[in-house]
Design goal:
The protein is an alpha+beta fold. The protein is 36% helix and 18% strand. Bound molecules: glycine and manganese (II) ion (2 copies).
Length: 439
């Protein structure tokens, strides 16, 4: 993505801020994994959204004070340091940052406290995501206090602190053409990874072998990181929603559930497929699988502008509940079961979430207490599931079966586009792919 899009986003933020306001956005910091090693660095999503500068320990400062006729965007970043760079990698440094990134000025981080005091001084409001980054909270509150404590009230601290997420979350919810292209790529790579896993699976292998195949495909396609902890749950491990141990043997006769997505330039995909280790579904597996798929397809029909996620969710719940009654897993009338939420024992999570720079992306699901209508440019998941616990109080033939089917949908002007449609999911497509493993 070139700088134009970032400049447009900055302008959009500045225009929505009250007049005479300043906004502070910290980058992520490195997080210790063990002793002197760190987790791989992942830029903060808000920072990434406004400026693609890729390093930790940076700050972005934006102002719409009238003294800056075009608005102001300042970057603070680590200074060049040859000996540190030999050990820890290259730094862009302020001089090159100003040339390469969408900022008016760039300064070394060493000057942050002093320069921020001067920059904030005289603004009426400060926009900041309080509670998002505790180190950043400490710095901002100490700077505000320093402004209030300035001798003879020679400085003016902003009188109000406003949550910048209220603006940024709404902006991030509607994806631009460039963002949609990134998400298409994230979806395409993850789709290939799921196909690879279906072609690779066989009994005697382990869940971690499938995890490795998935991550191999991500990495080979240039998507260096998964967007979240990959879930590979075989047999009744599929009934643990956030199972990530991924260390049990794959057994013929079991299903395996893989929930895996990658990041492409920060944008996430989030796909789940469930398939038989042996390549063929058993009768009971087929019945439950088809039920989840029917629920997903019925929900898809509701995914269009001006409908709500709640409408799609209600349809999925109705299909699943009626199906469970038909299979004698639930008893009684559909309406009573829905009212008493009896399905929640077997389908206990939501149908959907926003998808974007974060896998569970930002954006309110309700406006003024009402479910928000879908709009073109939103991207969301549709992910119904059924999880019959090993000790569930139902006929034993159903026990220990866990199924989820998850796709990523873009809302279009007239309906939706399924970005992950190429990952096989009908029973016949999965069985055919697995029979002919070379694809
Ligand atoms: N992979 C997390 C989720 O499906 O929400
Ligand atoms: Mn999801
Ligand atoms: Mn998922």
């Amino acid at each position: 993505m070139d700088n134009t899009e970032f400049l447009t986003r900055q302008k959009c933020l500045l225009e929505q801020m009250q007049p005479n306001s300043i906004c502070l956005v910290p980058a992520s910091n490195l997080v210790t994994r063990s002793r002197d090693t760190e987790y791989p660095f992942r830029q903060d999503s808000y920072f990434q959204y406004l400026c693609a500068f890729p390093e930790p320990e940076a700050w972005l400062v934006l102002s719409n004070h009238q003294k800056y006729s075009q608005g102001l965007c300042v970057l603070f970043c680590l200074d060049k340091d040859p000996s540190m760079e030999i050990w820890h990698g290259r730094r862009v440094g302020p001089k090159h940052a100003k040339q390469q990134y969408p900022v008016n000025m760039a300064f070394a981080l060493d000057d942050l406290d002093e320069q921020l005091l001067d920059l904030i001084d005289g603004h009426q409001n400060i926009y900041f995501a309080q509670g998002h980054n505790h180190d950043a909270d400490d710095l901002v509150f100490s700077l505000l206090q320093a402004l209030r404590d300035a001798p003879k009230q020679s400085k003016q601290a902003p009188s109000s602190l406003i949550d910048v997420r209220i603006i940024l979350d709404e902006m991030r919810l509607i994806k631009s053409t460039n963002e949609i292209n990134m998400m298409r790529q994230a979806a395409a790579v993850a789709t290939q990874a799921h196909i690879r896993a279906m072609q690779f699976v066989e009994s005697g292998k382990n869940e971690y072998h499938l995890e490795a195949e998935i991550h191999h495909e991500f990495a080979m396609q240039g998507a260096k990181y998964p967007a979240y902890g990959t879930i590979v749950g075989a047999g009744d491990n599929a009934c643990i929603l956030h199972y990530t141990e991924n260390n049990q043997a794959l057994k013929a006769g079991d299903l395996v559930l893989i929930d895996a997505g990658c990041e492409w330039q920060g944008y996430a995909s989030d796909i789940t497929r469930t398939f038989p280790v042996s390549g063929t579904f058993s009768t009971e597996q087929k019945q439950l699988y088809q039920l989840v798929l029917n629920a997903q397809l019925a929900a898809f029909d509701m995914i269009k502008p001006n409908n709500t996620i709640k409408q799609a969710s209600d349809v999925a719940i109705a299909v699943i509940t009626q199906g469970l009654i038909d299979l004698h897993i639930l008893k009684g009338e559909l309406a009573d079961n829905i009212e008493q939420q009896t399905y929640r024992k077997f389908y206990m999570h939501g149908l959907s979430h926003w998808l974007g720079l974060d896998v569970h992306d930002v954006g309110h699901y309700k406006i003024d207490g009402q479910d928000r209508p879908l709009k073109p440019g939103m991207v969301l998941t549709i992910e119904p599931g059924l999880y019959i616990a090993p000790d569930a109080d139902v006929a034993s033939k159903w026990c220990g079966i866990g199924i989820r089917i998850e796709d990523n949908l873009l809302i279009t002007q007239t309906g939706h586009e399924n970005l992950t449609i190429a990952a096989p999911k009908t029973i016949s497509d999965i069985e055919a792919l697995m029979l002919n493993k070379s694809g």
